[in-house]
């Protein structure tokens, strides 16, 4: 919820709007149930990781620093460890701020410009976190890894 608050503050929502949104998230969704009674379910952890990922994606797009790249890579790796099918969240990073074909071209140019300086850290940490999962399960036959989900 902390990173949700920071994201909403970044987009200049008023404090009362942020408070009402967080209140409704706690009361109006199953997040309270998942956090208190269904702790083994990955929903709360994914909500937290995706909020962190989205926050640092917005920060990276304003100031592409190595710190933001590392945190994006780490959270995307953890997201893929929690639920491997959610690695599609990386498209949010790649397509952030794209509303049309013209934006897509400028976004591709921006990523090309910053790719070798910043996003290599993103992919390194994402690969590292994902490889931990594979190393943990390397004593099992390969087809069993996908049957567990």
Secondary-structure map:
Layout: H1 2-10, H2 15-28, H3 31-36, H4 43-62, H5 66-82, H6 90-94, H7 101-136, H8 142-147
Number of strands: 0
Order of helices and strands: HHHHHHHH
Straight-line distance between termini: 27 Å
What Rg do the Cα atoms give?
17 Å
What does this 3D model show about the protein?
The two termini are 27 Å apart. Helix content is 76%, strand content 0%. With 149 residues, it is an all-alpha fold.
What keywords describe this structure?
single chain; about 150 residues; mainly alpha
In summary, what is this structure?
The protein has 149 residues and is an all-alpha fold.
């Amino acid at each position: 919820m902390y990173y949700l608050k920071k994201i909403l503050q970044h987009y200049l929502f008023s404090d009362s709007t942020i408070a009402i949104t967080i209140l409704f998230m706690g009361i109006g969704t199953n997040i309270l149930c998942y956090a208190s009674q269904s702790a083994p379910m990955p929903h709360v952890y994914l909500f937290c990781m995706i909020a962190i990922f989205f926050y640092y994606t917005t920060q990276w797009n304003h100031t592409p620093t190595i710190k933001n790249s590392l945190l994006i890579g780490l959270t995307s790796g953890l997201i893929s460890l929690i639920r491997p099918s959610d690695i599609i969240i990386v498209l949010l990073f790649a397509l952030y701020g794209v509303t049309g074909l013209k934006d897509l071209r400028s976004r591709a140019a921006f990523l090309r410009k910053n790719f070798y300086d910043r996003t290599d850290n993103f992919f390194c940490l994402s690969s590292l976190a994902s490889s931990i999962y594979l190393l943990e399960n390397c004593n099992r036959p390969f087809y069993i890894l996908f049957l567990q989900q």
